[in-house]
């Protein structure tokens, strides 16, 4: 695993072999997926198994039936809004009652431009049930899947790597930004790094309680040429390395406060629509941005706000709901 420990001044600071792979891939790899997969739950509820380390969760005040109905409607409206932008949305339903976090499919699988689908080891037992053969079959049917890399067996020995919850990937430059937490096992991370030739920027974080932030994707987003980063929660010793890597790969950085992270402004994903790219962020997250931050973002990419307050009770937001499809078309 190549870890960027120095302060790179240009992408060439990354291991030469990785840069070579990145340069070859830039012509075909896009940071912003033109297709996403979403899961629409029929019995949504916050997952109590996630409470110990997910400090972004909050208790709903609605009845379970009303809470589930609103979540269903929010996912439906979000999918329709993305389709209106020209983003292809594969929307699959979860009619079961044992997978409360299934609305966040980006944690159990990722897709890659070389035709690989990766499945990941999940920490909570209920989340392991989210892995679905029918979803993998759908990907095989619609895209040119070359192989499925199953990393999930690491669960048996208590090791976890929760997909693009913990891996914030710069697909073009092959850099993975990873915050340490109980959901990030460095042995499994090394396997990922070696399989795909990603350099890893590994860093420590702390929330208001001093605990590690459970998923990297609630504190940062990396788009084509813009990155949103909650710099204040990254350990001071690691902060320059993260920012230098982002800037060395051509990203303008918008720094977010802890309060904005708690409003899910960091949990965003850039997607490719029919006319332009869009940065998908919850209405709550957009509302937390200052006028200056919003202007900086929209000079690079239009914001697309989605209203998902019910889903956000579970401690995740817009980015968590979108599994980006980077597979080649058939």
What would you say this structure looks like, in words?
The chain starts with a strand and ends in a 5-residue tail after the last strand. By secondary structure, it is of the alpha/beta class. The protein has eleven helices and 16 strands. The longest helix is centred in the N-terminal third of the chain and has 22 residues, at 64-85. It is globular. Strands 1-9-8-7 form a four-stranded mixed beta sheet. Strands 3-2-16 form a three-stranded mixed beta sheet, with helices on one face. Helix 6 (186-196) links the parallel strand 8 (175-179) and strand 9. It is 29% helix and 21% strand. The protein has helices at residues 16-25, 64-85, 125-128, 133-142, 163-166, 186-196, 239-248, 258-262, 283-288, 291-300, 309-312, and strands at 2-3, 35-41, 88-94, 109-111, 116-119, 147-150, 167-170, 175-179, 199-203, 220-222, 226-229, 252-255, 269-272, 277-282, 303-306, 323-325.
């Amino acid at each position: 695993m190549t870890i960027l420990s120095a302060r790179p001044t240009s992408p060439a600071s990354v291991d030469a072999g990785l840069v070579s792979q990145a340069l070859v891939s830039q012509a075909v790899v896009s940071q912003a997926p033109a297709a996403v997969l979403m899961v629409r739950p029929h019995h949504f509820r916050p997952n109590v198994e996630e409470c110990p380390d997910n400090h972004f969760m909050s208790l709903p005040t609605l009845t379970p039936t009303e809470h589930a109905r609103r979540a269903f409607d929010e996912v439906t409206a979000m999918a329709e809004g993305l389709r209106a932008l020209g983003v292809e949305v594969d929307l699959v339903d979860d009619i079961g009652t044992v997978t409360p976090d299934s609305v966040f499919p980006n944690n159990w699988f990722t897709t890659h431009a070389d035709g690989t689908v990766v499945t990941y080891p999940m920490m909570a037992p209920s989340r392991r049930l989210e892995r679905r053969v029918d979803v993998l079959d759908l990907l095989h049917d619609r895209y040119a899947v070359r192989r499925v890399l199953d990393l999930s067996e690491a669960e048996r020995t208590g090791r976890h790597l929760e997909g693009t919850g913990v891996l914030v990937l710069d697909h073009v430059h092959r850099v993975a930004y990873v915050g340490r937490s109980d959901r990030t096992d460095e042995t499994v991370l090394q396997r990922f790094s070696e399989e795909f030739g990603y350099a890893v920027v590994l860093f420590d974080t702390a929330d208001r309680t001093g605990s590690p932030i459970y998923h990297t994707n609630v504190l940062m987003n990396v788009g084509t040429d813009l990155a949103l980063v909650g710099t204040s929660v990254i350990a001071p010793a690691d902060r320059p390395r993260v920012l230098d890597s982002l800037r060395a790969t051509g990203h303008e950085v918008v720094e977010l406060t802890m309060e904005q992270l708690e409003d899910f402004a960091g949990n965003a994903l850039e997607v490719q629509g029919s006319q332009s790219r869009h940065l998908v962020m919850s209405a709550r997250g957009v509302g937390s941005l200052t006028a200056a931050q919003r202007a900086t973002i929209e000079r690079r990419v239009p914001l697309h706000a989605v209203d998902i307050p019910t889903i956000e009770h579970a401690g995740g937001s817009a980015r968590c709901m979108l599994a980006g499809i980077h597979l080649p078309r058939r």
